[in-house]
Amino acid sequence: MIQENQIKIAVLDLYEGEANEGMRGIKQLISSFASDCQLNIVYHIFDVRSKNEVPDLSYDAYISSGGPGSPIDSAGSLWEERYFGLMDSIKDHNEQHPYNKKHVLLICHSFQIYCRYYGLGTVSKRKSTSFGVMPIHKTKSGKLDQILKSLGDPMWAVDSRDYQITQPDAEKIEAEGGALLCIEKHRPHIDLERAVMAIRFNDAIIGMQFHPEADAVGMRMYLLREDKKALVIEKHGEKKYWEMLNHLNDPDKIMLTYATVVPRFLMLALRNHLSSVPL
Questions:
Q1: How many domains are contained in the chain?
Q2: What's the whole-number average pLDDT of the chain?
Q3: Are 183 and 194 in contact (CB under 8 A)?
Q4: Where would I find the beta strands (DSSP E) of the chain?
Q5: pLDDT digits (tens, 9 = 90+) for 193-236
Q6: Partners of 159 in the β-ladder
Q7: Considering the domain boundaries, does residue 246 fall inside one?
Q8: CATH number for the domain including 23?
Q9: Owning domain of residue 153
Q10: Is 279 domain-assigned?
Q11: What backbone phi and psi angles, to 5 degrees, belong to 138?
Q12: What is the rounded distance in angstroms from the CA atom of residue 276 to the CA atom of residue 269?
């Protein structure tokens, strides 16, 4: 039974049962936000890929996680059919209720399949895995975006992906009220297009390739794994690996991203419940 003034958040789990730190981070951020703002927030987790679970439209905000595997091969699956049925319903609701929109945050795998499904960018497999704490560069729109504007340029975030979004359809994105927000680090010695790292699809739906829910605890655990250590050293060198470890607790790097992006998303998504909190 829904209590009076209860706020509901749907967490769409796309990890397909794979062990991860992402869900811990998302749950921790929601709980901290509820405590900090003294709001009666509950969240429900939906196992999208393993159990074909999706929420209804009774939720106030939706956070869709990262996940393993190919964002291309799942096209046409039952879980994707239900997942994008929900996304279509949210978009329809937002058109019909412009003053009471449902907000959606799409992380990594969710971001990739959203771009693919709606034809907003090209999804492809990277030549090699990208993993580590990386600088991410903002566009002009990214510097002004309400969620990202307080972060530096470059901002710092955890990157963990085998796939990428390139060739964004800027005209289509802008026609829907969106904008390209971030791109990956410029590498002049590598003749490859820079991948897209964040897109605002419209005023209520935003997606990002990086992991804003990643904190120092989770990232340290991953970096200390032998396979992840070897991957970073192979790609960036041993000096860079130790720098990543040493900078995990820096207040201006991933801890700032962690403390900013998801809380800011929730603040904007739940603004009708936060009339006394300045945005």
A1: 1
A2: 92
A3: yes
A4: 7-13, 41-47, 61-64, 103-107, 122-138, 155-166, 179-184, 196-200, 205-208
A5: 789 999 999 999 999 999 999 998 888 988 898 988 898 898 88
A6: 132
A7: yes
A8: 3.40.50.880
A9: 7-273
A10: no
A11: -85, 150
A12: 15
What's at 2, amino acid-wise? I
Q: Which amino acid is at 137?
A: H
How many residues does the structure list for the chain? 279
Q: How far apart, in Å, are the Cα atoms of 67 and each of 136, 191, 252?
A: 21, 28, 27
Separation CA 266–CA 144 (nearest Å): 18
Structure token pair of residue 152 = 């530096």
First to last CA, the chain: 31
On whether residue 239 sits in a domain, the answer given is: yes
Average pLDDT over residues 244-265: 92
Alpha-carbon gap, residue 27 to 167, rounded angstroms: 33
Contact in structure between 185 and 132 (CB atoms under 8 Å): no
Report helix, strand or coil for 239.
helix
| 2 inside domain | no
Q: Which residues fall within 8 angstroms of residue 71, CB to CB, at 6 or more apart?
A: 109, 112, 113, 116, 123, 163
